[in-house]
Every structure is written in structure tokens, then in C-alpha cells.
Amino acid sequence: MQNKGLIKLFAILFGLVSLFQLSFTFFANKVEDEAKVYAKANVTDNNGRELANFERKYLDSVANKEVIAGFTYNDIKDKEMNLGLDLKGGINAILQVSVKDILIGLSNNSKNAVFNEALAKADEAQKESQDNYLDLFYDKFEELSKGSVKLSDPSIFGTKLLRDKIDFNKTNSEVKITLQEEINTSINTAFEVLRSRIDKFGVVQPSIQRIGTSGRIQVELPGAKDIERVQKLLQSTAELQFWEVYSNAEVQNFFFEANAKVAELLKDDSATTQAKDPTKTESIDDLLGESADSTKVSQEKNLFTYLYPNVAQSQQQVSSLVAQAKVADTAMVNSLLANKEVRALLPNNLKYTKFLWDYKAQLSADKTTEVIGLYAIKSNRNDEAPIEGDVIADAKQDYDQLSKPVVSMLMNGTGTKKWAKMTGENVGKFVAVVLDDYVYTAPVVNGAITGGSTQISGGSMTVTEAQDISTVLKAGKLPAPARIIQAEVVGPSLGQESINASMWSFGLAILLVLGWMILYYGKAGLFANIALVVNILFIFGVLASFNSVLTLPGIAGIILTIGMSVDANVIIFERIKEGITEGKSLLTSVTEGFSIKGALSAIIDANITTLLTGVILYVFGTGPIKGFALTLMIGIATSLFTAIFITRLFVDGAIARGTNLTFNTNLSKKWFNNLSFEFLSKRRVAYFISGGIILAGLISILSIGLKQGVDFKGGRSYVVRFDQPMSATEVASTLKDAFGTAPEVKTYGADNQLKITTVYKIDEEGREIDDQVQNTLYNGLKSYLGTTSYEDFKPGFEKAGSGIMSYMKVEPTIADDIKKSALWAVIGSLIVVFLYILLRFRKMSYSIGAVVAVFHDVLVVLGVFSILYKFMPFDMEIDQSFIAAILTVVGYSLNDTVVIFDRIREFTEGKKSITANLVNKALNTTLGRTINTSLTTLLVMLAIFFFGGDSIKGFMFALIVGVIVGTYSSLFVATPVMFDTSKTEENNKK
């Protein structure tokens, strides 16, 4: 081998750089471990929120202190290896900026009937289509208008706002181009606003990126623990408004009349006992000052079943708070108060009233239920606020006279005049500060405020909340609402457990491989092991150097590349053994083994096919799947270098020292020698077996089906941990009452942990819906949670007891997109592989054999999952991770097949036809490599499967089945099909 000195220098420098980059991770972890010790010493009850606060306090105090060699904690934190959500915890969310709201805004809230009907039909069409919203709207508008009205009409987009861009003469297609430009501008603005908010959030190494032109923005915040805070920050439109407010005295008569009307509307419902105010001990009759016989309590549902009015019996009880309700009942209250018959009861002076909720729920007096306040806003025909947020010149977190956190705001000149007028006209009355349709404060006005300053306050507002509000106000208003349509949340406790499990499985996998290589190849195996360890160092060094994200599937990808690295050495060593067996010298055998005509051709072909599947995974995948693909691609590159060059350095060095390398041990030297198995003669039996397995799988798929994951069908999935072993069947039955239909409940890992999947309210939009579903889940599980409060139950922060460990939500619209993308990924990989093999081997029969084998492997794995998913004690869902596993199986199967095909091509070179004897000889001479590689890969995967995290078991099971089936298919499907088709080609040419 030439340039040995250069290769040595490169390897040493690359290794030192890798160690240097990884040292930042080591020292950052050391400081963070000290922070955890500090936090635990200061928190006695293991409260997750308090632990996080003390950790942050410690890290802030050492942020600018030197840790090592002039580097501060902030410096090394920026350079450490990034961990994904599944290892570190945090949130990954995809937000959809509402293109519909952008169009409505551009039309100046057009009342045109055709325009609004086209929007409604576009909403419906979007549920079943991957087309962008503007295209759907345009198609529906053309269909409905039939040329009767144009988009450039003054009642639609021919407005003052767009007069410089759209005139009446423009055609619909020209207007559409302008609208797309406006939409792109709005989405860019939304992206910049969200990035500004995230930068101020305080999470290290956040990620935010646009997804094509779909109006979707992906945000990943690894390490974020206050999940509720993140969700509010991301979805807050920052639409600030100042309104006059009706008092409870002014609306209480309406509530009593509405209560009677609602009782009529609900009289056909099942009877329930009238609810009591959870914050008070008095009944509604007590509030009214009436004495009611306890035997006459109404059994009918009415408004007061869900809403508790704040009745003013004296001037001292007059308040801006008009009522309260349980958080879980807010959707019902909204529905009842929006009912036409109920609103008809509002007197003329109240007819434009709109009811808005407080921004924050409070615990009831008995600490068992969360209740939230309701306010009556003095709206108008156009629902336009007297003062809006565009008058705010500055906002900051501050403290009031009682040292309570507030948001201080300074208005511009226009705002100052309007605010002075509004407060002057409402002395002794109430005004409300409303942010994104939530009331933050509604105080009584004591006098006109002329200085242009005001505050957002609240009795329970925290410093963090005040900081977040000032952040969103300064970052600016989103041009349209953005809602989370897909979210994955992993709590820090589960993340730490995943790290621990991964390290155990990773260490065990490496030991098994190292031991096997020494057992099989002796001293040469030791050289391969050194190259393998160097390969692992290089992989982690590259990931750390480029700030790549390491995920749990990423670790699986690294371990898979360990198998591939071993595979390269196995192919080389087997070639060298063949040369020695043929009587060639050791030096000649080594030279030929490391040459293109020897092992390198098969190694390069095999790795390129796997690299192609990795590229497709990276292009089509998201989140952890990208992490898997990235580590797979990096691993392929580093494993090729270490297997070919590092191993060669040690082998050449041993030969130069006169060492007699045999490339086997006394135990293994007779393994796989002089094999003469007639593979092709068994091909009809193999076809029959494969056909039977595939048929059974297809019958199961068509009758039983496959268990689709949340990201393919939509829904919400919660991993909930309890303090005691749980019965999945019992919990499903209990939650049926809460959700209306029984959710899917399955034990997840330990017997005190359940995965609960539900489609309850998944078609309803709004930030409050997520809160309601979570609250409903808590109330449904309350009897099993002991003393766990709702606050401790929520995802995020470390869990000392019961609670949500991880959470996933996928709306049906994006679920369809994910499913279609996954399908295209599989199809794309098959096409690419077919073309590559055709290009490389120049015969159609090789491509057909490889692709048939891949189809065979995919169908078998799908069939196994369909047949077994109801019986296995772990998740066997068909989701994005499963698709990653399928594509990996495709790559692995091709790896095997290409090595065999390469040997067949070598044996048939210069010959006019492919004979059965030559094919059988090629299969027998590569069988040692096939079994050896498959066995080492299986050892690695079994270690991860048994000792890795629960979340990766289904993924690893698919890989294990795929490796077994892929090994079988390369011997008994790919090669026989290639042989049969080549014979057909030869016969057709005659």
C-alpha cells in the first residue's frame, strides 16, 4: 500500500480532532452533573419544576467561568454534541401557518359569498389532499364563480391594501401569482417572528426551519422542560387588544335567562345532578339568596351545570369576572353561549358581547379541579378593538408596587391619546388587556392614564410568563395564526433512561462483535477490532464537529455501521484466506484481498447501495429518522476508510515484522471450507416457502391489517407512568367513559407504564383543545394517580412519580402527508437501487433478482408485523421509524446480494452464459462471509433489542426480522431469480 505515512498522519490527526471535539461534551456533562447535584441538595420533594429552576440557577452562575483551557461553560456548551429529543427530552413541533387567515386578511375580511364558500370547500379538500391551500382555494373559486366574479373584484382582493398590486383588469391566474407572493412574504415574516421568540427562550441549540412552500415551520427545542410554556410561545399570535368590559352585575340577568333556555335545549339529555361551584361551598340557590329544599335539587342539565356565575349581591361584589368554569367544560360553555337561541336573549345594549376566558386556570378551593374565569367584552358589529397592539412602542418584564411580576408597556403618540381617552371615559368601570383572545388583566379604572404607559398583570403571573409576554410583543405579531399540527414531546426522565439503556446496549454490542472477530480471525480479528474502535471514534468526532444531532435511531445507525465495518473486513479476510488456500504467499494474498479485483469491488458496491437508501431516508425523513440516516451515511464513509486503510496498516506491519497471519483460529479454521451445497437445485422449494410466507402475510394484512402509528393515522399518544403495575384492559375501560370511545392502551416496557392512544377531538383545532384532552386524560386516570397533581402529571420536567413521560400528536391532514412521503421513499429507493445495479452489472437479470428479493423482504416483514402485533409485548406500529427500518432492510439485503452478484460476475467473466455450477460455486465461496456478517449484525441488533430503550424495540425487531430474511433471500431468492431470468434472456437471444 502506497502513502502509508500520509494515511498514518491523517488517521492520527483525525483521531486527535475527534477526541478534542468530544472533550467538550465530556466537560459540559461534568458541569451539568454538578448542577443536578446542587439542585437535588436544594429541593427536598423532588419537584421537577423546582429541580429545573435550581439547575438553571447553578448553570447561569457558572456560565462565564472557565471550565478548562480558557473555555467557559457557555463556550463548551456551544461545541458539545447535540442530543435529540429521545435522548435529552424536549419538544419537536411542526406548525402550520394559516394560509386561510392570510387570505382573509388580504381580502380585508371579505363578505363575498363565493369567496367564503371557496374557503370552506378548500378547508374540506385539504383534509384529503397534499396540495397547498392556495391551489385548493383557487380551484374551488373557479368552480364556484364560473366567471361571474373575479378574484380582483373590489369585494375580494381589489382592496386598498393591494391596490398597487391588483387591479380589476387582472385575471384570476395573475391574481393567484400575486397572492402566492404575499403568502410567501407572510410565512417568511412568521418564520422570523418565531425565530426571534425562540432565540430569547433560552434553550441551547434550538432548530427552526421552513418545510418547502407549504406554510409549515418545524421547530425543535432539545432540553426544553417547560412544555406548556413552549407551546404558548410558539402559538401565540401576539394580537394585543384593549377593550371595555361589562361587569358581572350587568350580565347576570342574561345568565339566569340563558340557564333556563339551556335547560330546555338539553332536556332530552340524560339527567345529571346540578354541579356545584368547585371554588365555593354554596349552591346556586345560595348565591341567589334563596332557600331551597334539598329534595328539590334539579336533576336536569342547564348552563349552570357547566358555568358558575359570579353573582353581585352588593356594590362591593361588582367585578369584571362574570363567571367561572372547569377547564374541561370550557368547550361546552363556548358552544352553549354561542347558540343562536341563547344569544337572542342578550338585550340590545349587550348584543355584541363576546365572552373570553382568563389566560390562566386556577386550582379550586379543594385543590382537586382547575377552574378558569370568564369575562364579558364590549365588542361591536365589526369586532374591532378600540386600541390594538400596533400602538405599543416597547414592552419589558417589570415589577409592580407589591413586587409582583408585570409586563410594562409604553405606547406611541397615537396610542397615548387613545388610552387617555379610553381610561378617562371608563373611570369606575373596567377595561381589559387581551392577548390572543385571552384576558390577562381587567382592572377597575381609577382615573385617566395620560402618560402612555400601562401594564399587563395578573394575581398569579410569574416572572417567566411576564418575560414571555414581553418577548412575543417585542418580536412582533404573527401575520396569521400558527397552530401545532404535529408535536413530539419527550420528558427529561425518559430521555435519561434512553441514554442509560443505549449506553448499555451499545457497550454490549461492541463487546460481542470484538469477541467474535478475535474468536473467528485471531490476530487479524484484533486488527479489525482496532479499526472498528477508531471508526466509532471518527463517527462521534464527525457528529460533534458538525453539531449534528444524535438520536436513539442514530445510535442504532451507528451500531448498524459497526456491522457494516465488520462486513468489509470479513470480505477482505475471506479473500485473503482464499488466496492462502490456493497456495499463494501471504503478501500476495493480502495485496490481492485489498485490491479492486479482490474485495474492494464488492465492498464499494455494497456500501453504495446502502448509502443510496441512507440518502433517500435523509431526504424524506424528519426528526429521528434524519438522525438515523445521517449517522448511517457518516458511518459508511468512516467504515470504508478504517476497514480498507487502518486495518491494512496493521496487517502490513505484522507481515513486515514476520508475523505468520493465518486469518483464523484453531476453532474456526475448518468453518465454511470446501462447501459444495447445491443452492439452485433447492430454488423451487425456496420459491414455495417464500410464496407461502408472503401469502400468509398478505391474508393477514387484508383481514387483520397493520397497526398504524399516530404519525400515519393521526391522533394523540401518551406514555404514562404509574406508581404501581397497571392493567391495560382496565384502564382502557375506565377511559372509555372519559373519551366517549375506548382508546388503545398497551403496556409500554415496564408493567407500570402504559401507552395510551386516542383520536378524541383530533379533528378540532385550537391550543385549548390540547389542554382539554390532556385534562380529560388526567381526570380519567385520577383514581390510579394517587396524590399526583395535574401540574405534576403534565409532560415535561423530571418525574418523581406518576405522569406523562412522552407525548405525540399528529393531526390527520399531516398524517396523510407523512404516509404518502413514506410510500414515495420506499418506491424511490427501489427505483434508485434497480438503476444502480443495472448500471453496475450491465444486465437486467441482476436488477430483477435484486428488486424481487427486496420486495420479498419487505412483504415478509410487513406480514410478520401484521400477524404478530397483537401478541408481542412491545409496540409494532407502522410509522416513520418502521419505514426507516424497511429501507435499512432494503440496504442490508442489497448489501448481501451485491457481494454474491459481484462474485458471480467474477466467475462468469469472459463466459457466454451463466451456469448453475458457477452460481453455486459463487454462493459457496461467499457463504462464510454471508453467515459471518449476518451473525455479527444480529448479535449487535439483539443486544439493542434486549437492552435498549422501549421506544426502539419495534424498530429493532423489524431490523432483526429483515436481517434474517435478507440473508435468506440473497441466497434463495435474489440469486435464483437472477439465474432464471438470465436463462430466459439467453433463450430469447437465440
TrEMBL record:
Query: What family name appears in the similarity comment?
Result: Belongs to the SecD/SecF family. SecD subfamily. Belongs to the SecD/SecF family. SecF subfamily.
Please give the subunit comment from the record: Forms a complex with SecD. Part of the essential Sec protein translocation apparatus which comprises SecA, SecYEG and auxiliary proteins SecDF. Other proteins may also be involved.
Domain SecDF P1 head subdomain: start-end pairs:
384-480
Keyword set for this entry? Answer: Cell membrane, Membrane, Protein transport, Translocation, Transmembrane, Transmembrane helix, Transport
Q: In terms of domain of life, where is this protein from?
A: Bacteria
Start and end residues of each Protein export membrane protein SecD/SecF C-terminal domain: 482-648, 804-981
Q: Where in the cell is it found?
A: Cell membrane
Q: Where is the Protein translocase subunit SecDF P1 domain?
A: 188-245
Q: Which GO terms describe its biological process?
A: intracellular protein transmembrane transport; protein targeting; protein transport by the Sec complex
Q: Write one Pfam family the protein is assigned to.
A: SecDF_P1_head
Name-wise, this protein is Multifunctional fusion protein
Membrane-spanning residues: 501-519, 526-546, 552-573, 594-621, 627-651, 685-706, 821-839, 846-869, 881-901, 931-949, 955-979
InterPro entries to which the protein is assigned, alphabetical: SecD, SecD/SecF_arch_bac, SecD/SecF_bac, SecD/SecF_CS, SecD_1st, SecD_SecF_C, SecD_SecF_C_bact, SecDF_P1_head
Q: Name one GO cellular component term.
A: plasma membrane
Organism from which the protein derives: Tenacibaculum adriaticum
Task: Give the bilayer topology.
Answer: Multi-pass membrane protein
Gene Ontology terms for molecular function: protein-transporting ATPase activity
- NCBIfam families in alphabetical order: 2A0604s01, PRK13024.1-5, secD, transloc_SecF
What does this chain do? Answer: Part of the Sec protein translocase complex. Interacts with the SecYEG preprotein conducting channel. SecDF uses the proton motive force (PMF) to complete protein translocation after the ATP-dependent function of SecA.
Claim: ATP-binding is one of the keywords in the record: no
